[in-house]
Write a structure and sequence with these properties.
The protein is α+β, with helices and mostly antiparallel strands and 367 residues long. The chain folds into 3 domains: 1-68, Molybdopterin biosynthesis moea protein, domain 2, CATH 3.90.105.10; 94-311, Hypothetical protein af1432; 315-367. 41% of the residues lie in helices and 8% in strands. A 4-stranded antiparallel β-sheet has the order 5-6-7-8, with helices on one face. Strand 2 and strand 3 (29-31) form a beta hairpin. The chain is globular.
Amino acid sequence: MAAKEFVRTDKLKPGMMLAENLKDRMDRVLIPKGTILNQHQIHAIFQLRLPGVNIGEPEPDPTPVERPVEVSKEAEENITKIREDDPAKVQLSDSIKQRVSEGIQYLYNDTESDTFSETSNNVTQSLLKAINDSNAIAVDISSLKTSDEYTFKHSVDVATMSMIVAKRMGLPDQDIYNIGISGLLHDMGKSKIPLEVLNKPARLTEEEFEIMKQHSVLGYRILKEKDDFSPQIGLAVLQHHEKMNGKGYPMGVTAEKISPYAKILSVVDVYDALVTERPYKKGMSQRDAIELLMSMSLELDIDVMRHFISSVILYPVDTIVELSNGEKACVVKNNPDSVLRPTVVGLTSGRVYELATDLACASILIM
């Protein structure tokens, strides 16, 4: 075999060496180069729907790095014994991504269109079908990328994640669908914000931020003029920046006056804004965003937050992580009630670290 050779996913076999780091779309290393692939890692590559990977001797790095850790026999046995697949995640095919991208751009570019409502319904149906087809109850936003334009991408992210949260909460199908439309259109008012404010490649001044804050009212007015949308959808768009403690906008209402749809949109909207890179800020890591979200218990609905956090997979099963005790470990099981602390197996020691439940692991963190 040459130094590096592209091998189709369906031709991968245990014992092949990965020539390049295998990363997700958020540039996280899932399997480091130099890894001798096992059956579990090949299965993970299948799940990522990659056409193939480069196999062979990895090229040396310009700076010295640690040699890949060899997996002990005990580790292999424990990984096989304990490993559990992650819950089904939303999968958007390329054709759905294109359809959704074209639809959302059409909506934001022409709010007066005669087919505005029809297009909104079609895009939401496409997203909901993708969720139902895979029976998804989890989401990895790095796989949702439908547009390079922030407002469009953000709208699809919020719609999809909000429907997942609603589904996890056991809401009726009609509510899940309405929440999807609410998420898709929650920033529609930004189409009426002056472009010099909307597209400013730096932080807004106080005066500019006051203009930007009008987008929730402007979005509500756009939908109010249309007869095809439930009043609950318009109210969600109006209130998605309200906070439980009354410190949100535009009305400054407290928890009991915020619509259930808006409580869901608010949590998802904050998270997606935190992890998304903008011209004036780097996106947070998903871990840091979850930790910040958990600190906002006075502003966001606790029940919604709990269901949202349990739907986010920070460390996909088969990811290699480094622990604070210096050992590299393989993620073998995620814990929905403690997404920051999955179950991992030390690659050298073979030790099973139940990070969420074992008091002996209380001081051990994923670095």
